[in-house]
Write a structure and sequence with these properties.
The complex is a heterodimer of chains A (about 240) and B (about 260). With about 240 residues, chain A is mainly alpha-helical. Chain A contains nine helices and two strands. Helices cover about 70% and strands about 5% of the residues of chain A. In chain A, a hairpin with a 2-residue loop joins strand 1 and strand 2 (about 165). In chain B, strand 3 (about 75-80) and strand 4 (about 80-85) form a beta hairpin. The chains are: A mainly alpha (about 240), B alpha+beta (about 260).
Chain lengths: ~240, ~260
């Protein structure tokens, strides 16, 4: 037998590193960061719903101001960015590894016979979400931060808020969502998110080892409900704002 | 029945002279078989083809087989895009030609995974599974007199669950079906079977740590929970066994004395 195929696994870098770099450790990291991002989706949606209040953006601006200035939220947001990056980096590492595990593809394969497409296309769905995320961050978060630190002059966006000048984020959002291209990008991305979540949510629990006759059906139902309701909420906001502009 | 077969032919193995993996040269080749009885098993159909090839002086198609009754785990054919063919809960040898129609074209390929290098045609080397078993897939039994069979009480439900996991024949269909060529269903079945029973408790933590480490060493992919493995498993090993292995693995890693 050959040297490469007869390698015997040995402890390499200590138990913790070994655990976290094993195939199981890596997918647990994907699942953990994924579940945290699910929580983030809920919080972010609650905030976004303020956009639909018919008050010229006061509630949304107050919310944006709170999110941008509260130290606890700021700390969590650093964690959130870290988890998003970890989720992306690990997905690339794992996908590369998984592709290397099959150096030659089948000439004829029928994957639909044994699994559903969304579970197999998590990387593609995730890539759509990543493109969305970049546009989203550049368009809103980036502009907001640059203005916040006085790096750009956005006279229109800075309005009186209480006693201090604050960013008028509502106007920025309103302007963005009067553009049909932006609305379409949002809706398409949220459809991708829905499919990503429909597999990802329940898959995370399976990865944690939480598979049980009593609870798995419930986890699946909650997962599907989550995958439909959250992206639907996000997608409705630009649609409603576009329709009522 | 008259059939057209598209079969993977490969003369040189995927392991090169230096012992490294390298895709061996091969290609899908067309063959025709005539007068196939619908009552034949799939492997008997291949036997017919090989007889024809031998008569013509051609090289017969190499494929793995042994018991031909679905318990040895030797047959390993990727038939029409699915491991062990279109029927569920069966091995290739239990597949009958009545599952196909006259005039069909059938694609036959070997398992495709880096950890299962092709030896020739449809035969792959599955020693990576053996090495995973050697890493921890056993129980310690003290020598001496034979112990009474019922000395250690085992609950019926536990015994049944362990038996369901032990049904795994190690054929590798899970690896073949998985888009990541992951061996988690196989390893989890073996981990489960032994750790569920009291006899397997002695090595419980060390076992899962070493078997998973060996699985990774062999170059199998990671699980993305598509469920393809379980759907194609001829012994219907459920996906919950992978969840059990994940639990066992983390529990062992965190609590064992192996630093």
């Amino acid at each position: 037998m050959s040297s490469t195929t007869q390698k015997i696994a040995k402890d390499k870098k200590g138990w913790f590193v070994d655990m976290m770099t094993s195939t199981i450790g890596r997918k647990v990291l994907m699942a953990l960061t994924g579940i945290f991002l699910c929580l983030f989706l809920i919080i972010h949606l609650i905030g976004n719903l303020q956009l639909l209040k018919n008050d010229g953006g006061t509630a949304f601006n107050e919310y944006a101001h709170f999110m941008g200035s509260n130290p606890l939220i700021q700390t969590v947001s650093i964690l959130n960015f870290t988890f998003i990056i970890l989720h992306i980096v690990y997905s690339i590492i794992l996908t590369r590894m998984n592709m290397q595990a099959r150096p030659r593809k089948y000439a004829y394969s029928k994957p639909a016979a044994n699994s559903n497409w969304r579970s197999r296309k998590m990387m593609a769905l995730g890539s759509i979400i990543l493109i969305f995320l970049i546009v989203h961050l550049v368009y809103f978060w980036g502009k907001m931060k640059l203005t916040h630190y006085g790096l750009v002059e956005e006279g229109v966006l800075v309005k009186k808020f209480g006693t201090t000048d604050q960013l008028h984020l509502y106007d920025l959002v309103n302007a963005a969502f009067s553009d049909i291209i932006m609305v379409v990008l949002y809706v398409v991305s949220m459809i991708a998110l829905a499919f990503h979540l429909s597999h990802g949510f329940q898959s995370a629990f399976q990865t944690f080892g939480l598979n049980h006759v009593k609870y798995t059906p419930l986890i699946k139902t909650v997962g599907y409900a989550f995958a439909i309701l959250i992206p639907l909420g996000y997608a409705l906001i630009p649609i409603i704002m576009f329709a009522t502009k | 029945m008259n059939l057209t077969l598209q079969i993977w032919r490969q003369n040189k193995p995927d392991i090169n002279n230096n012992g490294n993996y390298q895709n061996g040269e091969g290609k899908m080749t067309e063959y025709k078989v005539a007068d196939i009885s619908p009552d034949m098993s799939f492997l008997e159909m291949l036997d017919e083809l090989n007889e024809d090839l031998l008569k013509k002086g051609d090289d017969p198609v190499a494929f793995d087989h042994d018991c031909r009754e679905g318990i040895c785990g030797m047959c390993s054919l990727y038939i029409n895009g699915q491991p062990h063919g279109p029927e569920s809960g069966t091995t290739a040898c239990q597949l009958h030609m009545r599952s196909f129609k006259d005039g069909d074209t059938i694609y036959i390929e070997p398992w495709r995974a880096k950890a299962f290098p092709v030896v020739k045609d449809l035969v792959v080397n599955r020693s990576s599974f053996d090495r995973i078993m050697q890493a921890g897939g056993y129980v310690s039994v003290n020598t001496g007199v034979t112990v009474d069979a019922n000395e250690i009480p085992v609950a019926k439900t536990i015994a049944d669950e362990a038996f369901n996991m032990a049904a795994c024949i190690g054929c590798g269909a899970c690896v073949a079906a998985c888009k990541n060529a992951s061996a988690m269903l196989f390893v989890s079945a073996k981990v489960s079977q032994l750790s569920l029973l009291p006899q397997g408790k002695a090595e419980r933590k060390k076992r899962v740590e070493r078997m998973v480490a060996q699985m990774d060493e062999e170059g199998f992919g990671a699980c993305t929970n598509t469920g393809a493995c379980s759907a194609e498993c001829p012994k219907d090993i459920p996906l919950s066994s992978i969840a059990r292995m994940n639990r066992e693995y983390f529990e062992a890693k965190i609590t064992s004395n192996n630093v």
